[in-house]
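Need a sequence for this fold. Nothing fancy.
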């Protein structure tokens, strides 16, 4: 791998080095965990709002303030969850950090591990928008503790979805992250099912029953290469700007922008 490619990957956070093409099979049994968003509000028994870095500022130089329990940013209606990013300042909030945008970041209260995951969602596509469906453990230093990005998309490159794994040995800071990308032409106009098959020997990620990434647990290095041996929390969020999402600037005229989630399901293995 050339130095130029290493720098480009580190700047983009995405990677194309573990592309795959295979079927993904959804289990036919009842999910171990599911939120069908059939109620009238976010179920705080299943989810918590992450606002921890509002005052200090969020990672990757992102520009949003993540609100808690605010319907303008996270609401449930008509059987779906909507996470909306808006152009506004909540300067009266006690943890306000000077942000010009608001959004929401939901984290599952349950840590989930091996198994099959399916999240049916419709994505926002405005320039400067950065929606994500991903997983982190509730403790440990990044990147050593690991990160699983089931779906990321940046609005300046709309309809291209990315799946990426980060570990101590393989991460974007080193330009060694393991990932793949897929063009989903209707990502912002139609529902798609984003899927993860997490096993001890491999992690496979796909869309609509077709895998586009597979990373095998076959590299030396122990936990630095493969920390994916414990439960992680699932995260749903829409970021604004940042090193990757804001690479081509932010189109203020495009707001509000929203990611809509029909359901979240996990079949434990």
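Here you go.
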């Amino acid at each position: 791998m050339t130095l130029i490619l290493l720098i480009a990957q580190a700047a983009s956070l995405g990677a194309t080095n573990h592309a795959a093409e295979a079927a993904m099979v959804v289990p036919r049994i009842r999910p171990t965990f599911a939120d069908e968003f059939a109620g009238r509000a976010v179920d705080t028994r299943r989810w918590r709002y992450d606002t921890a870095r509002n005052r200090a500022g969020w990672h990757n130089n992102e520009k949003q303030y993540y609100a808690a329990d605010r319907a303008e940013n996270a609401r449930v209606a008509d059987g779906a969850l909507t996470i909306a990013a808006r152009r506004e300042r909540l300067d009266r909030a006690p943890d306000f950090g000077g942000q010009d945008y608001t959004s929401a970041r939901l984290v599952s209260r349950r840590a989930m591990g091996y198994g099959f995951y399916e999240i049916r969602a419709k994505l926002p596509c405005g320039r400067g928008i950065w929606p994500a469906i991903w997983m982190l453990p509730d403790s440990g230093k990044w990147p050593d503790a690991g990160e699983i990005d089931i779906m990321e998309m940046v609005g300046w490159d709309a309809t291209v979805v990315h799946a990426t794994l980060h570990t101590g040995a393989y991460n974007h800071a080193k330009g060694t992250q393991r990932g793949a990308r897929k063009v989903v032409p209707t990502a912002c106009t139609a529902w798609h099912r984003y899927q993860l098959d997490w096993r001890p020997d491999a992690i496979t990620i796909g869309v609509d029953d077709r895998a586009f990434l597979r990373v095998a647990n076959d590299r030396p290095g122990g936990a630095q290469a493969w920390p994916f041996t414990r439960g992680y929390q699932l995260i749903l969020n829409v970021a604004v700007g940042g090193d990757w999402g804001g690479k081509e600037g932010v189109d203020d005229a495009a707001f509000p922008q929203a990611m809509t989630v029909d359901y979240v399901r996990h079949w434990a293995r």
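For context: The longest strand covers residues 257-268.
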